[in-house]
Amino acid sequence: STVCDDSWNDNCATVVCRQLGKASYGVAVHESEFGLGVGPTFLMNMWCRGNETDLLNCKFAKADDCKPENTAGVICVDSYNNIRLVNGSDKSNGRLEVLLYGNPSWGTVCSDGFTEENARVACRQLSLPTRHVQFKTDAYYGEGSGDILITNLDCAGFEVTIQSCYGFPNSEYPYNCFHDQDVGISCSDDCPSFKYGAECENTCKCDQSKSISCDKDSGKCICEYGWKGTRCNCEESTECKETIDEG
């Protein structure tokens, strides 16, 4: 039996490669590139997160209308960091560039439609922090050269690689995008001032005029000298009778 290539992506291919014990990552192949399958097509409309241990743990439908020339395939690879950040201040930031399978030259990503979720997936793929991610437009890290390979990338945020996101790769180069729109990203484990949480989504309940910052994990306030209390609103020399606002 075979699998239909509709909705087939790198997340699905990665599950197959891991299940077979072949490699850590997979590249999705479409349109029966390795030849027509033998026997009936069993599955279609596959949807995997990429962390499943078995293809049958993914969402799917039983195939009822898939042509033989639409058989899915996989290429198993040991490394999938064919993206990079260049021209940044260190390895955690820079212009985002990609290397497409079968293409010898690096290309850039258009900032059109780019989101924080896209940046988070790219940081994860590069084994960089994902707590506080940002994307920069207007060639913030300088203009690239060569082809602009991706535009309107659409990641949900949970993917392992940007290659697994909707819109990768584009069927045509985005000719309506120019290098002054090259996107860049930054990946950090630090939160902005008075923010905390797994993605810096919470605001610390500190008196900001009397505190230095807060712990990025717990939100606990770090008081200025001479102040104490849960919110740093009690003088060190006095008894603290603050009221904690739970709202």
UniProtKB/TrEMBL annotation:
Keywords assigned: Disulfide bond, Glycoprotein, Membrane, Repeat, Signal, Transmembrane, Transmembrane helix
Domain named SRCR: residues: 1-77, 83-188
Query: Its domain of life?
Result: Eukaryota
InterPro entries per UniProt = LOX-like_protein (IPR050912), SRCR (IPR001190), SRCR-like_dom_sf (IPR036772)
Where it mainly occurs, coarsely classed, is membrane
The protein's matches in SUPFAM superfamilies, at most eight in alphabetical order, are given as: SRCR-like (SSF56487)
Please give one Pfam family short name. SRCR
Q: What is this protein called?
A: SRCR domain-containing protein
A GO molecular-function annotation: protein-lysine 6-oxidase activity
Q: Which PANTHER family does this entry report, sorted A to Z? A: LYSYL OXIDASE-LIKE-RELATED (PTHR45817), PROTEIN-LYSINE 6-OXIDASE (PTHR45817:SF6)
Please state where this protein is localized.
Answer: Membrane
Q: Name one GO cellular component term.
A: membrane
Residue pairs linked by disulfide bridges in the UniProt entry: 48-58, 155-165
Q: How does it sit in the membrane?
A: Single-pass membrane protein
